[in-house]
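Example 9 (inverse folding). The structure is encoded as follows.
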């Protein structure tokens, strides 16, 4: 080995010295169920994608269930899809069901998923906006944070 390079070579770590890598828990503990239709991995990916798009709104989510169902069990061309969901948050449960005005059945399963998640996003945003915002508290007189003009 070149003597000039000896100082720059890092010693090899033993297995005990290597950092422990833990796998992160799944970002969204949500069960995806299909009713009246065959399970679709593409629809599962779409649901997970929407959960990711909601970002910070779903970060505190404790659990959830998304049910994708075929409303009409006729021919494939005549089918309509509906998505129901319950997202359990620390503050309560966000429910988007068939009675929600913007969550009607749709002939495209991806549009049905999109409509349900947009409705859920509006509910989550309104619950975040409805939370009381704590006003900053001024430090008490004589505390270390008080500004004093010296002569």
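The amino acid assigned to each position is listed next.
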């Amino acid at each position: 080995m070149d003597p000039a390079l000896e100082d720059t070579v890092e010693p090899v770590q033993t297995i005990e010295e290597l950092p422990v890598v833990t796998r992160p828990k799944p970002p969204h503990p949500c069960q995806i169920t299909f009713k009246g239709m065959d399970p679709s991995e593409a629809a599962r990916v779409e649901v997970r994608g929407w959960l990711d798009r909601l970002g910070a709104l779903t970060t505190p989510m404790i659990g959830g269930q998304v049910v994708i169902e075929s409303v009409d069990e006729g021919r494939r061309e005549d089918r309509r899809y509906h998505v129901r969901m319950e997202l359990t948050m620390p503050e309560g449960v966000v429910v988007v069901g068939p009675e929600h005005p913007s969550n009607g059945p749709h002939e495209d399963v991806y549009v049905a998923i999109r409509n349900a998640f947009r409705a859920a996003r509006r509910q989550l945003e309104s619950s975040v906006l409805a939370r009381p915002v704590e006003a900053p508290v001024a430090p008490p007189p004589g505390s270390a944070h008080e500004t004093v003009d010296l002569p």
